[in-house]
Amino acid sequence: MATFLYKLGRLTFRRRRFVALIWVALLALAGFGAASASTATSSSFSIPGTEAQRAFDLLEQRNPGSSADGATARVVFKAPSGEKVTDADNKREITGFVKELQSGSDQIASVADPFQAQAVSQDGSTAYISVAYKVNSMELTDATRDALEGVGKDAQKSDMKVEIGGDALQVMPHSGAAEIIGVGIAAVVLVITFGSLIAAGLPLVTALIGVGIGVSLITALANVLDLGSTTSTLAMMIGLAVGIDYALFIVSRYRAELAEGKEREEAAGRAVGTAGSAVVFAGLTVVIALVGLAVVNIPMLTKMGFAAAGTVAIAVVIALTLVPALLGFAGKRVMGRKARRAAESAGKADLGKAKPNMGTRWARFVLRKPVWVMLVGVLGLGVIAVPAASLEMGLPDDGAQPKSTTQRQAYDMLSEGFGPGFNGPLVTVVDTKNSADGEAAVARVSEEIKSIGVVAVAPAEFNKAGDTATIVVIPKDRPSSVETENVVHAIRDAGEGVKADTGAEVLVTGATAMNIDFSQKMNDALLPYLALVVGLAFLLLMLVFRSVLVPLKAALGFLLSVVAALGAVVAVFQWGWLGSLFGVEQTGPIMSMMPIFMVGVVFGLAMDYEVFLVTRMREAFVHGESPGQAIVTGFKHGARVVTAAAVIMMAVFAGFIGSSEQMVKMIGFSLAVAVFFDAFVVRMAIVPAVLALLGKRAWWLPRWLDRVLPNVDVEGEKLQKQLTDESGSPQGPGEGDSDRELARV
Questions:
Q1: Are strands 426-431 and 393-394 parallel, antiparallel or unpaired?
Q2: Cα(first)–Cα(last) distance of the chain, in Å?
Q3: How far is residue 641 from each of residues 364, 490, 738, measured CA to CA in Å?
Q4: How far is Cα 654 from Cα 657, in angstroms, rounded to an integer?
Q5: What is the pTM of this model?
Q6: b/e map of 650-671 (b: 16 or more CB within 10 Å)?
Q7: Which of 141, 272, 544, 597 has the greatest number of CB atoms lying within 10 Å of its CB?
């Protein structure tokens, strides 16, 4: 692989104008496609194999016009202090708005008058109009949304407080200035690392081009492939981080080759052949982890994973082709003036007298105190991981929206007037097709539900055929609470007894039950997916490092950083510790898809640091250095670049904490924290400490396994031998010191 990439690097360097033109053309085409596509909306939501989904499907089959998954809205009215909504003037105004809503759009299935539907609170202070639509929220037209918002604005002219809740109005996420600040921090880190604006700008430019193409393609295909608005945000988050890092590694190696006196084209070829090999492997791990989300069998999560994986794949190809092409345009200016002057005035004899860099000094400290460093790292992450034992997963409702939104205010008004359970009604579906007495079976189901302890049980409504009934149940607690989840399970348990006695099947659905089933499915999939990812990490790293213990150590370190990150997420978003610092307005269960998505992404990023840091150690060991000296050499060459890469990733991910979308905020925080733990605690501290304790045993591989495993040559050893044979010089591309020229900056 290294030999092929070496030739690719030289080719793209020579044909840089053609390569740059191709990428600019691709960006323009993708941008045109995005501009021509209609605006993306929230993706459809389905959970194959769950009871809630089966109930939805049954309602669609037995009562086709019911639009079981149709969008809903609630226009909530609160009378001024000292008045009631039932007062003549207020009642007349609300009734007028009911009529206005009924004529507002042909997508409306029904509008319930609150005074006829008993949607008035006991104290008379609050009432709500229920609006049901024929289509789901993503299929609502702008005219329909505008009509709903128009009614809300007209109603707000009255003395009553009026807010609108439900999924008919979707709040589009925005990330704010924090996202730009993240990219700005990345730019500052790159300038400090390279000491050159040209070198710092290359990773940023190439990453932005890659993200531009990836996000534009997602936008262009959003409605065709049913991609939600969150998909492009997550793809941007991951694509920016890996795009900058991959380009950073190649530019850093290119500068090292120039510092050793290589010609520019040769330096580009060797940089792509060595660092590029590691980029391919690191990118492959991220892509596999993201595509592997398909095993969970949640269509929405699968699409998010594939979209993000596509953006990562684009980042890899850009790093291997566009980066060397732009290096050709940059020339030796990529070194910076100070580094060029140092290269001209300093001889190689002076290099050995250079002051040891921070990576070297840290590695020597770890070699002196390996047990203490390992214990502090493991115990520290272990303490942070403790809250993960209390992890509760769920999906957010309108109660998780910012307090400034109309959805959140409507949610709070309903909770105050009717109780928290009104924000998450349960729909119990009774299939009486196989029952001898359907009406009696449905009556028994209603009695069973009342005995469980809920606020209200609405009268059952049968379809035209009389073989399916729906019962709306109002629980006592808010939709995302554990108590409401217990009510759902209690109804389902009671339904088993009803089915055994009467033959009628009882199913619980509705948005709340759907969220509960989704969370349960994600919870069940987390450990198998984690095992899959860790197992994959072990096999891939065994190919790279030709070792058994090094991959085992890497996989266990990955597990430790992931669990610690989950602990931090639980402490902030579930317990509320430091919540105000991160804009958490409402604590609650952790987003169901967040842990499994974080596992997939962090796995790939953790392997990035492992590959770029430990391959240097193995290379030094293979060339005759002692195990301890190999650790020092690895840190001397790679610590600064890996540190810069980690800081950049943290800055990019942390930028998304400012998003108004709870899921994006939580994922941004979790990834930033996970990168910090994995890069600075696991890879920079625990890994060298463990390798120091293992000594030569760290690089042991059974002979039979060595013969069976293919040699992927990530380190470029074959390329080094080939170039040495051709030049007759013992100097190979793998022996360059990537920090020699950095030490001069």
A1: unpaired
A2: 32
A3: 18, 55, 9
A4: 5
A5: 0.77
A6: bbbbbbbbbbbbbbbbbbbbbb
A7: 272
